[in-house]
Design brief:
alpha+beta; four-stranded antiparallel sheet; 11 helices; 9 strands
Length: 516
Amino acid sequence: MHDRVGLPDVVAAASARLPGGPPVSARRAAAAAVAAGRGGRRGRGGRGLVLPAAGDLAGGLRGRRCGGGAVEAGRAPARGRGRRAVGDATDGPGDGDARGGGRRGVGKALGSGGHDDGEAGHEHATAGVEPFFGDRQAGIATAAQAHALFAAFDLAAADLASGEALDAAAVAANLEALLRDWSAVSAALAAGEAPPKAAIDGADQFDAEAVASGLDPARLTVTFGIGPAAFAKAGLEAARPSKLAELPEFDGDRLNPAWSGGDLLVQVCGDDQQVVSAAFLELRKRAVGRGTLLWVQQGFSSAPSGGTPRNLMGFKDGSANPEAGSALFDERVWAVDSEPSWFEGGTYQVFRKIRMRLPDWSVLSAEDQNLTFGRERDSGAPLSGGGEFDHPDFEVLDDSGLPAVPADSHVAVVHDAAMVRRGFNYDYGFLTQGDVSSDASGDGHLDGHMHAAHPYDAGLLFVSFQADPQVFIDAQEKMAAGDRLAEFITAEGSGVYAVPSGAPDGGFVGEGLFRS
């Protein structure tokens, strides 16, 4: 369910109803190379892949402690020998460490299934219900749910019935109608109520799908974003958010157009996968004649009670997020600088499908995995010492006199990225079509056996929210230039979207765009 899809042919019949490392010595050499400006890349040829989610992705191990002992005399606890430099690490934007401003809670606030009351305009009065209406859209500061679905649509360029090209005014009308209908449907489903009947359904058809009939809304949230190209298509270029532009393709990316871009992004999250799927089916139905489904990605996330979730590499993911509702969270996420009035208080969302080379990763030593992320896997503490939520100390040295947190580790590369990450794992199993794989024909595992004929597709659906997408771009470029994690990740899908502020009671998301 992650390939590009077109609308079912059957909708044509409904058109009439449409409304208008090596030993220490080798490591020293590698460190010297970094200092000399030669990139310090070692290992298997490190591709400068940009894995935006890797920062916190790997965030699992901060604060390297030995039996709970504190770091003394500016040195990290002994860690054994064979500190081998793993290939290029790619770090993703969003692993910036948050100091102060209530940064504890990052993994807990956004990564656990518990409620978080920090999101303005959303009161959790009823168990299982995340209100749709509010100052901000739900699904951003909301505590992360167990399941997520991301779907991208392009606005229709031609009339479904006649096939005639639509002018900008007609495209804008479709965009407004979509956001209005989608908001009404989402508000009803989030409250556990039946959605309004779709305009394309006749009197002889059911009023709504029954996929989730009788189920709790399971903290369902639906979040809408608008892509860069949509504004020009709808003749609304003058109202486009000031920092919204297509992301560049970074070194190491192997982007598949089938998994990238889109005029609209719909993020559906919930604690019940069936509820999430049901919501998507209702939303997709309302797009008939107004938009075309481009791609769908589905992910999952699970964390221990009060803890931080882990990525498929086994490391904690989200340790560096500031606490939702804190001053630091607001500063990182909400766009208020030089934005059109309709978009003030919104945010920018980056989506990346990041495929992980898990077979290669799994054969690394425990030490090499820790060095790649700059954290201890099990505790999530930085290798310089402390706890999971402590900022890494890049001045601390290990027993060999080298930085305890390598300069090319993921946390070192992206620790200052001012964003909030809200990613989900994905595991699609073995791909069956070579043309959708980023594997090269000669690609293989570290032990020499080949796997291109049966590529395994699993990794991270990286999602970040930031007040300025340039934050993500800067972090991604640094990852491409020298992050060990890059050896094990490949970006295969990418997109950036303007996420408007929330809708007032009875209103719809993005309403101000059409009044500006």
